[in-house]
Amino acid sequence: MKADVVPAHLAPPPLDIPTWVPELIAQSVTAFYELAVEGACGAAVRECGYTNDFDDYDYVSRRYLDELIPDVLRASVADFVPDELAEITRCCRLLTCDRRMRGVWRELSKRRSSGEFLHPARLSSAPTAQEQQDIAMLELFHTALGCQQQRDKTTATRDEIEQKRNYYFAKANELRKDAKIMLVHDRSDLSFEMTCYLALETAAQAYEVHAREVYSGSPEMVFERKRDSRARWVALTIANKFRELFNKPMYQLTATITSLILGREIDHCTVRYWCDRAVKSPKIAP
């Protein structure tokens, strides 16, 4: 019976997913919630310095936590876990329990008089239109959840992209110089030097490939100024996902989700402006 009892001080607040949340999303967020809670417990065990060669504490079920941890460390673990559980609960509730998300799911579930979806998903792998729509809404939810968790992501300025590209190209040139010096000036073991030369040349090419990827990747995330770069990144990421899944950016719904993630109101006109600027901004020439 002890194994089935969750310690009171480690029990997270109930998630209480509303009934209007689509079933597939409710199942997904519940699984994510449980895994995140177990990860928090595992992190607390490691933070307290308790290790065991026979157990993996990356994920620890709360119901077994009292049995796994010695009495002397149990109080210390309890100090670490509650704050983590509160943050996990807040993260999951934000995109599932806020009633503004009900409007998002309702809009994406609307049908025409003919029975077709008003905003049909572009996915073709699912056998039915309903399943396609459900999968698309789930993918949208995961994208929003990812934006919420990646708090350091922002749009970049053109100067920042230029600096990154130049840095990686400079590193490639340095490796090539070292490779040539090594090959020309040390002939004691030519086969070994040739191996080193090829290894450095491969590394230099990898730097160049990465520099080109930095330059060409996500051009819509590059703006002239840094202002509001976090909000722009979230809005553009959500709008791009709408465009990918439903063939249109759906500015109003994008603004709703972006506002929830940022914790402040973002108008759909602002989202449209950012998206238009991203599309019209000239690409950086290589």
Report what the structure shows.
It is extended and about 80 Å long. The chain has 10 helices and 2 strands, in the order H-H-H-H-H-E-H-H-E-H-H-H. The protein has helices spanning 23-47, 65-68, 71-97, 99-109, 129-149, 158-185, 190-216, 229-246, 251-262, 268-280; strands spanning 156-157, 222-223. Helices cover 65% and strands 1% of the residues. A two-stranded parallel sheet has the order 1-2. It has 3 domains: 1-97, no CATH class; 100-153 and 226-286, no CATH class; 155-221. The longest helix has 28 residues, at 158-185. It is mostly helical.
Write the layout of secondary structure elements.
Blueprint (H helix, E strand, L loop, with lengths): L22 H25 L17 H4 L2 H27 L1 H11 L19 H21 L6 E2 H28 L4 H27 L5 E2 L5 H18 L4 H12 L5 H13 L6
Parallel strand pairs: 1-2
Question: What labels describe this entry?
Answer:
single chain; 286 residues; 10 helices; extended
**Low-pLDDT segments:** 1-9
The span between the termini is: 66 Å
Beta content: under 5%
Major pleated sheet: 2 strands, parallel
User: Kindly state the mean pLDDT as a whole number?
Assistant: 76
List the helices and strands in order.
HHHHHEHHEHHH
Structural class, please? mainly alpha
- Total strands: the figure is 2
Count, helices? 10
Radius of gyration: 25 Å
In what order do the strands lie side by side in the largest sheet?
1-2
Number of domains: 3
Please tell me what the overall shape is.
Answer: extended
Helix content: 55-70%
